[in-house]
Specification:
Elements (H helix, E strand, L loop, with lengths): L4 H12 L5 H10 L9 E9 L4 E7 L5 E8 L9 H12 L8 E7 L2 E7 L3 E2 H6 L7 H20 L2 E2 L8 E3 L5 E3 L6 E2 L19 H4 L8 H16 L9 H12 L27 H4 L5 H10 L10 H5 L30 E3 L5 E3 L18 H16 L24 H17 L5
Antiparallel strand pairs: 1-2, 2-3, 3-5, 4-5, 6-8, 7-10, 8-9, 11-12
The structure holds adenosine-5'-triphosphate.
Protein backbone atom coordinates (compact mmCIF):
# COMPACT_ATOMS: atom_id res chain seq x y z
CA UNK A 1 0.00 0.00 0.00
CA UNK A 2 1.49 3.23 -1.16
CA UNK A 3 -0.72 5.38 1.01
CA UNK A 4 1.41 7.23 3.46
CA UNK A 5 -0.41 7.01 6.71
CA UNK A 6 1.58 9.93 8.04
CA UNK A 7 0.55 12.12 5.14
CA UNK A 8 -3.12 11.31 5.58
CA UNK A 9 -2.96 11.81 9.31
CA UNK A 10 -1.29 15.15 8.76
CA UNK A 11 -3.97 16.21 6.31
CA UNK A 12 -6.61 15.17 8.79
CA UNK A 13 -5.13 17.11 11.62
CA UNK A 14 -4.54 20.15 9.44
CA UNK A 15 -8.08 20.09 8.14
CA UNK A 16 -9.54 19.43 11.52
CA UNK A 17 -8.26 22.78 12.62
CA UNK A 18 -10.21 24.33 9.78
CA UNK A 19 -8.23 27.53 10.17
CA UNK A 20 -5.81 26.44 7.44
CA UNK A 21 -6.27 26.24 3.71
CA UNK A 22 -5.16 23.93 0.90
CA UNK A 23 -1.71 25.58 0.63
CA UNK A 24 -0.96 24.30 4.09
CA UNK A 25 -2.06 20.83 3.09
CA UNK A 26 0.47 20.95 0.24
CA UNK A 27 3.24 21.95 2.58
CA UNK A 28 2.33 19.13 4.95
CA UNK A 29 2.74 16.69 2.07
CA UNK A 30 6.16 18.15 1.31
CA UNK A 31 7.17 17.78 4.93
CA UNK A 32 6.45 14.04 4.93
CA UNK A 33 8.44 13.49 1.76
CA UNK A 34 5.87 13.12 -0.99
CA UNK A 35 6.05 16.30 -3.03
CA UNK A 36 5.73 14.54 -6.35
CA UNK A 37 2.32 12.90 -5.92
CA UNK A 38 0.83 14.50 -9.01
CA UNK A 39 3.95 13.92 -11.09
CA UNK A 40 3.81 10.21 -10.47
CA UNK A 41 0.66 9.78 -12.59
CA UNK A 42 0.08 10.33 -16.30
CA UNK A 43 -3.44 11.57 -16.63
CA UNK A 44 -5.83 9.98 -19.13
CA UNK A 45 -9.45 10.66 -20.03
CA UNK A 46 -12.35 11.34 -17.68
CA UNK A 47 -14.13 8.23 -16.50
CA UNK A 48 -17.08 10.13 -15.15
CA UNK A 49 -18.24 12.51 -12.52
CA UNK A 50 -19.94 11.61 -9.29
CA UNK A 51 -21.62 13.70 -6.66
CA UNK A 52 -18.32 14.54 -5.03
CA UNK A 53 -15.80 14.88 -7.82
CA UNK A 54 -14.40 13.99 -11.22
CA UNK A 55 -12.74 10.62 -11.77
CA UNK A 56 -10.12 10.16 -14.48
CA UNK A 57 -8.05 7.29 -15.74
CA UNK A 58 -4.28 7.47 -15.25
CA UNK A 59 -1.13 5.39 -15.36
CA UNK A 60 1.11 5.06 -12.35
CA UNK A 61 4.59 5.60 -13.77
CA UNK A 62 6.23 3.79 -10.86
CA UNK A 63 4.27 0.54 -11.11
CA UNK A 64 2.94 0.90 -14.66
CA UNK A 65 -0.50 0.08 -13.36
CA UNK A 66 -3.64 1.73 -14.66
CA UNK A 67 -5.42 3.57 -11.90
CA UNK A 68 -8.53 5.71 -11.40
CA UNK A 69 -8.01 9.06 -9.71
CA UNK A 70 -10.84 10.84 -7.97
CA UNK A 71 -10.22 14.58 -7.76
CA UNK A 72 -12.00 16.29 -4.91
CA UNK A 73 -11.93 20.02 -4.21
CA UNK A 74 -10.87 20.67 -0.68
CA UNK A 75 -12.91 23.85 -0.55
CA UNK A 76 -12.07 27.36 0.50
CA UNK A 77 -11.67 28.27 4.12
CA UNK A 78 -14.97 30.08 4.36
CA UNK A 79 -16.86 27.21 2.66
CA UNK A 80 -15.62 24.72 5.18
CA UNK A 81 -13.79 21.53 4.33
CA UNK A 82 -14.92 18.87 1.95
CA UNK A 83 -15.19 16.09 4.46
CA UNK A 84 -16.39 13.53 1.98
CA UNK A 85 -12.86 12.82 0.88
CA UNK A 86 -11.64 12.61 4.43
CA UNK A 87 -14.38 10.20 5.30
CA UNK A 88 -13.60 8.01 2.31
CA UNK A 89 -9.86 7.97 3.08
CA UNK A 90 -10.32 7.33 6.74
CA UNK A 91 -12.70 4.43 6.25
CA UNK A 92 -10.91 2.83 3.32
CA UNK A 93 -7.74 2.83 5.37
CA UNK A 94 -9.47 0.44 7.73
CA UNK A 95 -11.17 -1.66 5.10
CA UNK A 96 -8.79 -3.78 3.11
CA UNK A 97 -10.42 -6.74 1.46
CA UNK A 98 -10.61 -8.38 -1.98
CA UNK A 99 -14.25 -7.22 -2.23
CA UNK A 100 -13.58 -3.60 -1.29
CA UNK A 101 -11.96 -1.08 -3.63
CA UNK A 102 -8.30 -0.48 -2.86
CA UNK A 103 -7.21 3.06 -2.09
CA UNK A 104 -3.63 3.05 -3.35
CA UNK A 105 -2.47 6.58 -2.79
CA UNK A 106 -3.63 10.02 -1.72
CA UNK A 107 -2.06 13.33 -2.67
CA UNK A 108 -3.01 16.95 -2.53
CA UNK A 109 -2.46 19.01 -5.67
CA UNK A 110 -3.36 22.67 -6.03
CA UNK A 111 -6.59 23.01 -4.10
CA UNK A 112 -7.69 19.44 -4.74
CA UNK A 113 -7.22 16.19 -2.96
CA UNK A 114 -6.62 13.21 -5.24
CA UNK A 115 -7.59 9.70 -4.24
CA UNK A 116 -5.89 7.00 -6.32
CA UNK A 117 -7.84 3.76 -6.67
CA UNK A 118 -7.18 0.54 -8.48
CA UNK A 119 -8.73 0.83 -11.93
CA UNK A 120 -11.94 -1.12 -12.41
CA UNK A 121 -13.18 -2.06 -15.83
CA UNK A 122 -16.90 -1.91 -15.34
CA UNK A 123 -19.71 -2.06 -12.81
CA UNK A 124 -22.67 -4.23 -11.96
CA UNK A 125 -25.17 -1.87 -13.50
CA UNK A 126 -23.51 -2.33 -16.89
CA UNK A 127 -23.82 -6.10 -16.46
CA UNK A 128 -27.49 -5.90 -15.52
CA UNK A 129 -28.21 -3.61 -18.46
CA UNK A 130 -26.23 -5.57 -21.03
CA UNK A 131 -28.78 -7.63 -22.88
CA UNK A 132 -26.07 -9.77 -24.45
CA UNK A 133 -25.27 -11.18 -21.04
CA UNK A 134 -27.36 -14.05 -19.80
CA UNK A 135 -27.14 -14.17 -16.02
CA UNK A 136 -27.52 -17.72 -14.78
CA UNK A 137 -28.48 -18.46 -11.19
CA UNK A 138 -24.84 -19.42 -10.55
CA UNK A 139 -23.76 -15.99 -11.84
CA UNK A 140 -26.27 -14.17 -9.60
CA UNK A 141 -25.02 -16.27 -6.70
CA UNK A 142 -21.42 -15.27 -7.44
CA UNK A 143 -22.28 -11.56 -7.53
CA UNK A 144 -24.34 -11.78 -4.33
CA UNK A 145 -21.58 -13.66 -2.55
CA UNK A 146 -19.03 -11.00 -3.45
CA UNK A 147 -21.38 -8.17 -2.41
CA UNK A 148 -22.16 -9.81 0.93
CA UNK A 149 -18.51 -10.62 1.60
CA UNK A 150 -17.57 -6.96 1.11
CA UNK A 151 -20.49 -5.84 3.27
CA UNK A 152 -19.73 -8.31 6.04
CA UNK A 153 -16.21 -6.89 6.26
CA UNK A 154 -17.56 -3.32 6.45
CA UNK A 155 -20.03 -4.24 9.17
CA UNK A 156 -17.44 -6.18 11.14
CA UNK A 157 -15.36 -3.00 11.19
CA UNK A 158 -18.40 -0.95 12.23
CA UNK A 159 -18.74 0.78 8.88
CA UNK A 160 -22.07 1.33 7.12
CA UNK A 161 -21.68 1.84 3.38
CA UNK A 162 -25.00 3.73 3.01
CA UNK A 163 -24.86 4.08 -0.77
CA UNK A 164 -25.02 0.57 -2.16
CA UNK A 165 -26.39 0.45 -5.70
CA UNK A 166 -25.31 -1.45 -8.81
CA UNK A 167 -23.12 1.37 -10.15
CA UNK A 168 -21.15 1.54 -6.92
CA UNK A 169 -20.25 -2.14 -7.28
CA UNK A 170 -17.23 -2.05 -9.55
CA UNK A 171 -15.88 -5.00 -11.53
CA UNK A 172 -12.22 -5.70 -12.17
CA UNK A 173 -10.85 -7.28 -15.32
CA UNK A 174 -10.87 -10.66 -13.58
CA UNK A 175 -14.58 -10.32 -12.81
CA UNK A 176 -13.95 -9.55 -9.14
CA UNK A 177 -16.65 -7.31 -7.65
CA UNK A 178 -15.64 -4.57 -5.21
CA UNK A 179 -17.67 -2.19 -3.11
CA UNK A 180 -16.74 1.39 -4.00
CA UNK A 181 -17.78 4.98 -3.32
CA UNK A 182 -17.45 5.25 0.43
CA UNK A 183 -18.17 8.98 0.41
CA UNK A 184 -21.36 8.47 2.42
CA UNK A 185 -20.07 5.68 4.63
CA UNK A 186 -20.20 6.08 8.41
CA UNK A 187 -18.95 4.47 11.54
CA UNK A 188 -21.76 3.01 13.58
CA UNK A 189 -21.95 1.17 16.89
CA UNK A 190 -23.07 3.49 19.62
CA UNK A 191 -26.78 2.77 20.17
CA UNK A 192 -27.77 6.40 20.63
CA UNK A 193 -25.75 7.73 17.70
CA UNK A 194 -28.13 9.59 15.39
CA UNK A 195 -27.56 9.70 11.64
CA UNK A 196 -29.13 11.42 8.71
CA UNK A 197 -31.74 9.34 6.93
CA UNK A 198 -31.04 11.07 3.59
CA UNK A 199 -28.71 8.38 2.35
CA UNK A 200 -28.91 5.82 -0.47
CA UNK A 201 -30.41 6.32 -3.89
CA UNK A 202 -34.14 6.02 -3.32
CA UNK A 203 -34.74 2.64 -4.94
CA UNK A 204 -32.30 1.01 -2.52
CA UNK A 205 -33.52 2.79 0.65
CA UNK A 206 -34.72 0.62 3.51
CA UNK A 207 -38.22 1.31 4.88
CA UNK A 208 -36.85 2.51 8.24
CA UNK A 209 -34.91 5.24 6.40
CA UNK A 210 -37.99 6.23 4.43
CA UNK A 211 -39.84 6.59 7.74
CA UNK A 212 -37.09 8.94 8.93
CA UNK A 213 -35.20 6.67 11.32
CA UNK A 214 -31.97 8.24 12.57
CA UNK A 215 -30.78 5.31 14.64
CA UNK A 216 -30.40 2.73 11.96
CA UNK A 217 -27.75 0.06 11.61
CA UNK A 218 -26.21 -2.35 9.10
CA UNK A 219 -29.67 -3.60 8.14
CA UNK A 220 -29.94 -0.61 5.76
CA UNK A 221 -27.07 -2.02 3.68
CA UNK A 222 -28.65 -5.49 3.75
CA UNK A 223 -31.94 -4.08 2.42
CA UNK A 224 -30.04 -2.36 -0.41
CA UNK A 225 -28.21 -5.63 -1.15
CA UNK A 226 -31.59 -7.39 -1.29
CA UNK A 227 -32.80 -4.83 -3.86
CA UNK A 228 -29.69 -5.55 -5.92
CA UNK A 229 -30.28 -9.31 -5.53
CA UNK A 230 -33.82 -8.89 -6.91
CA UNK A 231 -32.48 -6.65 -9.70
CA UNK A 232 -29.98 -9.33 -10.74
CA UNK A 233 -32.78 -11.88 -10.98
CA UNK A 234 -35.32 -9.63 -12.70
CA UNK A 235 -32.86 -7.61 -14.81
CA UNK A 236 -34.61 -4.39 -13.85
CA UNK A 237 -34.61 -2.24 -10.72
CA UNK A 238 -37.06 -3.94 -8.39
CA UNK A 239 -38.77 -1.13 -6.46
CA UNK A 240 -38.79 2.02 -8.56
CA UNK A 241 -40.45 4.70 -6.46
CA UNK A 242 -40.73 8.18 -7.94
CA UNK A 243 -40.68 9.91 -4.51
CA UNK A 244 -40.01 8.77 -0.97
CA UNK A 245 -43.73 8.33 -0.32
CA UNK A 246 -44.15 6.42 -3.56
CA UNK A 247 -41.12 4.30 -2.67
CA UNK A 248 -42.83 3.17 0.54
CA UNK A 249 -46.01 2.58 -1.45
CA UNK A 250 -44.05 0.37 -3.88
CA UNK A 251 -42.49 -1.57 -1.00
CA UNK A 252 -45.83 -2.09 0.73
CA UNK A 253 -47.49 -2.98 -2.57
CA UNK A 254 -45.07 -5.88 -2.90
CA UNK A 255 -44.43 -7.05 0.66
CA UNK A 256 -47.71 -5.88 2.20
CA UNK A 257 -48.31 -3.02 4.64
CA UNK A 258 -46.40 -3.86 7.83
CA UNK A 259 -48.34 -4.23 11.06
CA UNK A 260 -47.08 -3.90 14.66
CA UNK A 261 -46.76 -7.68 14.92
CA UNK A 262 -44.38 -7.80 11.99
CA UNK A 263 -42.45 -4.63 12.84
CA UNK A 264 -43.10 -3.65 16.46
CA UNK A 265 -41.48 -0.18 16.50
CA UNK A 266 -42.71 1.04 13.16
CA UNK A 267 -45.33 3.48 14.45
CA UNK A 268 -42.78 5.30 16.62
CA UNK A 269 -40.49 6.20 13.70
CA UNK A 270 -40.20 10.00 13.17
CA UNK A 271 -41.94 10.19 9.79
CA UNK A 272 -44.36 7.32 10.28
CA UNK A 273 -47.69 7.73 8.50
CA UNK A 274 -50.34 5.12 8.20
CA UNK A 275 -50.66 3.60 4.74
CA UNK A 276 -53.75 1.98 3.35
CA UNK A 277 -53.57 -1.77 3.86
CA UNK A 278 -52.10 -3.79 0.97
CA UNK A 279 -51.78 -7.56 1.18
CA UNK A 280 -48.34 -9.09 0.56
CA UNK A 281 -47.63 -10.74 -2.77
CA UNK A 282 -46.06 -14.17 -2.69
CA UNK A 283 -42.31 -14.25 -3.28
CA UNK A 284 -42.88 -17.18 -5.59
CA UNK A 285 -45.05 -15.04 -7.87
CA UNK A 286 -42.51 -12.21 -7.76
CA UNK A 287 -39.55 -14.46 -8.58
CA UNK A 288 -41.03 -17.41 -10.46
CA UNK A 289 -37.66 -18.77 -11.68
CA UNK A 290 -35.88 -18.57 -8.32
CA UNK A 291 -35.01 -21.63 -6.25
CA UNK A 292 -36.55 -22.21 -2.80
CA UNK A 293 -33.22 -21.33 -1.15
CA UNK A 294 -32.94 -18.14 -3.14
CA UNK A 295 -36.47 -17.09 -2.14
CA UNK A 296 -35.82 -17.91 1.49
CA UNK A 297 -32.71 -15.72 1.53
CA UNK A 298 -34.47 -12.89 -0.29
CA UNK A 299 -37.28 -13.02 2.27
CA UNK A 300 -34.81 -12.80 5.15
CA UNK A 301 -33.00 -9.88 3.56
CA UNK A 302 -36.29 -8.07 2.84
CA UNK A 303 -37.54 -8.44 6.44
CA UNK A 304 -39.27 -5.24 7.57
CA UNK A 305 -38.08 -5.16 11.17
CA UNK A 306 -34.39 -4.19 10.99
CA UNK A 307 -33.79 -6.11 14.24
CA UNK A 308 -34.98 -9.32 12.61
CA UNK A 309 -33.42 -8.72 9.19
CA UNK A 310 -30.64 -11.18 8.42
CA UNK A 311 -27.08 -9.84 8.75
CA UNK A 312 -24.60 -9.87 5.87
CA UNK A 313 -22.53 -12.52 7.65
CA UNK A 314 -25.51 -14.81 8.28
CA UNK A 315 -26.68 -14.30 4.71
CA UNK A 316 -23.30 -15.60 3.55
CA UNK A 317 -23.78 -18.65 5.72
CA UNK A 318 -27.27 -19.28 4.30
CA UNK A 319 -27.78 -22.63 2.57
CA UNK A 320 -28.37 -20.78 -0.73
CA UNK A 321 -24.58 -20.43 -1.02
CA UNK A 322 -23.93 -24.07 -0.17
CA UNK A 323 -26.41 -25.75 -2.50
CA UNK A 324 -26.16 -26.31 -6.25
CA UNK A 325 -25.40 -24.52 -8.47
CA UNK A 326 -22.10 -23.35 -7.01
CA UNK A 327 -21.30 -19.64 -7.57
CA UNK A 328 -19.59 -19.07 -10.92
CA UNK A 329 -15.85 -18.39 -10.43
CA UNK A 330 -15.40 -14.66 -10.95
CA UNK A 331 -13.01 -15.00 -13.90
CA UNK A 332 -15.75 -16.90 -15.78
CA UNK A 333 -18.40 -14.20 -15.35
CA UNK A 334 -19.25 -12.52 -18.64
CA UNK A 335 -18.09 -8.95 -18.95
CA UNK A 336 -20.24 -6.20 -20.41
CA UNK A 337 -19.55 -5.04 -23.93
CA UNK A 338 -17.51 -1.87 -23.70
CA UNK A 339 -18.56 0.88 -26.08
CA UNK A 340 -14.89 1.57 -26.92
CA UNK A 341 -14.50 -1.82 -28.59
CA UNK A 342 -17.09 -1.02 -31.23
CA UNK A 343 -15.82 0.23 -34.56
CA UNK A 344 -17.88 3.37 -34.18
CA UNK A 345 -19.54 4.98 -31.19
CA UNK A 346 -22.97 3.80 -30.21
CA UNK A 347 -25.49 6.13 -31.76
CA UNK A 348 -28.91 6.89 -30.50
CA UNK A 349 -31.23 8.91 -32.67
CA UNK A 350 -33.52 11.23 -30.82
CA UNK A 351 -36.98 11.80 -32.32
CA UNK A 352 -35.87 15.30 -33.28
CA UNK A 353 -33.14 13.80 -35.39
CA UNK A 354 -30.15 14.72 -33.24
CA UNK A 355 -27.47 12.12 -33.05
CA UNK A 356 -26.70 11.44 -29.44
CA UNK A 357 -23.51 9.62 -28.67
CA UNK A 358 -23.49 7.52 -25.60
CA UNK A 359 -20.84 8.45 -23.06
CA UNK A 360 -17.69 6.40 -23.56
CA UNK A 361 -17.91 4.36 -20.43
CA UNK A 362 -20.99 5.25 -18.56
CA UNK A 363 -24.24 4.26 -20.20
CA UNK A 364 -26.10 4.88 -16.98
CA UNK A 365 -25.75 8.65 -17.40
CA UNK A 366 -27.63 8.13 -20.68
CA UNK A 367 -29.82 11.11 -21.35
CA UNK A 368 -31.51 11.85 -24.62
CA UNK A 369 -32.31 15.38 -25.60
CA UNK A 370 -34.73 16.87 -28.07
CA UNK A 371 -38.20 15.36 -28.33
CA UNK A 372 -39.59 12.52 -26.29
CA UNK A 373 -37.52 10.91 -23.66
CA UNK A 374 -37.06 7.20 -24.15
CA UNK A 375 -36.83 4.73 -21.36
CA UNK A 376 -33.40 3.23 -20.84
CA UNK A 377 -34.93 -0.05 -21.96
CA UNK A 378 -36.03 1.44 -25.27
CA UNK A 379 -32.71 3.16 -25.74
CA UNK A 380 -30.94 -0.07 -24.96
CA UNK A 381 -33.10 -1.99 -27.45
CA UNK A 382 -32.37 0.65 -30.13
CA UNK A 383 -28.68 0.45 -29.39
CA UNK A 384 -28.63 -3.29 -29.70
CA UNK A 385 -30.75 -3.23 -32.83
CA UNK A 386 -28.11 -0.96 -34.38
CA UNK A 387 -25.19 -2.95 -33.09
CA UNK A 388 -26.46 -6.39 -33.87
CA UNK A 389 -25.11 -6.57 -37.42
CA UNK A 390 -21.71 -5.31 -36.23
CA UNK A 391 -21.54 -7.64 -33.29
CA UNK A 392 -22.58 -10.57 -35.43
CA UNK A 393 -24.10 -12.25 -32.42
CA UNK A 394 -27.82 -12.62 -32.39
CA UNK A 395 -29.51 -11.14 -29.38
CA UNK A 396 -30.75 -14.45 -28.14
CA UNK A 397 -34.21 -15.40 -27.16
CA UNK A 398 -33.84 -14.21 -23.60
CA UNK A 399 -36.41 -11.52 -23.01
CA UNK A 400 -35.18 -9.24 -20.33
CA UNK A 401 -37.64 -6.66 -19.10
CA UNK A 402 -35.70 -3.43 -18.81
CA UNK A 403 -37.44 -0.47 -17.37
CA UNK A 404 -36.18 2.63 -15.69
CA UNK A 405 -38.60 5.33 -14.64
CA UNK A 406 -39.91 6.62 -18.01
CA UNK A 407 -40.51 10.08 -16.59
CA UNK A 408 -36.90 10.73 -15.78
CA UNK A 409 -35.10 8.03 -17.74
CA UNK A 410 -32.61 7.89 -14.89
CA UNK A 411 -32.08 6.10 -11.65
CA UNK A 412 -32.75 8.50 -8.81
CA UNK A 413 -29.76 9.59 -6.84
CA UNK A 414 -29.39 12.19 -4.12
CA UNK A 415 -30.79 15.54 -5.24
CA UNK A 416 -29.03 18.87 -4.71
CA UNK A 417 -30.92 19.80 -1.55
CA UNK A 418 -30.15 16.34 -0.12
CA UNK A 419 -26.53 16.97 -0.99
CA UNK A 420 -26.21 20.37 0.65
CA UNK A 421 -28.06 19.07 3.69
CA UNK A 422 -25.67 16.13 3.81
CA UNK A 423 -22.63 18.31 3.36
CA UNK A 424 -23.62 20.52 6.30
CA UNK A 425 -24.50 17.49 8.37
CA UNK A 426 -21.39 15.52 7.53
CA UNK A 427 -19.15 18.53 8.14
CA UNK A 428 -20.48 18.66 11.65
CA UNK A 429 -20.44 14.91 12.24
CA UNK A 430 -16.88 14.27 11.30
CA UNK A 431 -15.48 16.93 13.56
CA UNK A 432 -17.74 16.24 16.49
CA UNK A 433 -17.55 12.48 16.62
CA UNK A 434 -14.17 10.77 16.67
CA UNK A 435 -14.16 7.49 14.76
CA UNK A 436 -14.13 4.17 16.57
CA UNK A 437 -10.76 2.52 16.14
N1 LIG B 1 -11.84 2.69 -9.42
C1 LIG B 1 -12.48 3.06 -10.52
N2 LIG B 1 -12.15 2.55 -11.72
C2 LIG B 1 -12.80 2.91 -12.83
N3 LIG B 1 -13.81 3.79 -12.87
C3 LIG B 1 -14.18 4.35 -11.69
C4 LIG B 1 -13.55 4.02 -10.46
N4 LIG B 1 -14.13 4.73 -9.46
C5 LIG B 1 -15.09 5.46 -10.05
N5 LIG B 1 -15.12 5.24 -11.38
C6 LIG B 1 -16.04 5.83 -12.34
O1 LIG B 1 -16.03 7.23 -12.17
C7 LIG B 1 -17.34 7.76 -12.25
C8 LIG B 1 -17.65 8.61 -11.04
O2 LIG B 1 -17.60 7.79 -9.89
P1 LIG B 1 -18.05 8.27 -8.46
O3 LIG B 1 -17.82 7.14 -7.54
O4 LIG B 1 -17.36 9.56 -8.14
O5 LIG B 1 -19.57 8.63 -8.60
P2 LIG B 1 -20.86 7.79 -9.04
O6 LIG B 1 -20.89 6.53 -8.23
O7 LIG B 1 -20.92 7.66 -10.52
O8 LIG B 1 -22.06 8.74 -8.66
P3 LIG B 1 -22.56 9.16 -7.22
O9 LIG B 1 -21.48 9.95 -6.61
O10 LIG B 1 -23.77 9.96 -7.53
O11 LIG B 1 -22.86 7.89 -6.49
C9 LIG B 1 -18.25 6.56 -12.44
O12 LIG B 1 -18.50 6.41 -13.80
C10 LIG B 1 -17.45 5.39 -11.98
O13 LIG B 1 -17.80 4.20 -12.63
Amino acid sequence: MVVKAALIESIFSVLQHQALGPEVVDSVAMAVGEPTGAKRYVKGHNLGEGTYGVVFKAVDTVTNRTVAIKKIRLGKLKEGVNVTALREIKLLKELQDPNIIELMDVYPHKSNLHLVFEYMESDLEAVIRDRNIFLSSADCKAYMQMILKGLAVCHKKWVLHRDLKPNNLLLGSNGQLKLADFGLARIFGSPDRRFTHQVFARWYRAPELLFGSKQYGPGVDVWAAACIFAELILRRPFLQGSSDIDQLGKIFGVFGTPGEAQWPDVTSLPDYVEYQYSPPQSFRSLFPQASEDCIDLLQRMFTYDPKQRITAQLALEHRYFRTEPAPTPCYMLRRPVKPEVHPKPIELLSPAGHIVFSPPTKTRRLQLFGGDIKTAGEASRDTHAKLQPELGTPIDAITIPMSIDPKTNLRPTLNSSDRSYLKRKLDMDIFLTPARR
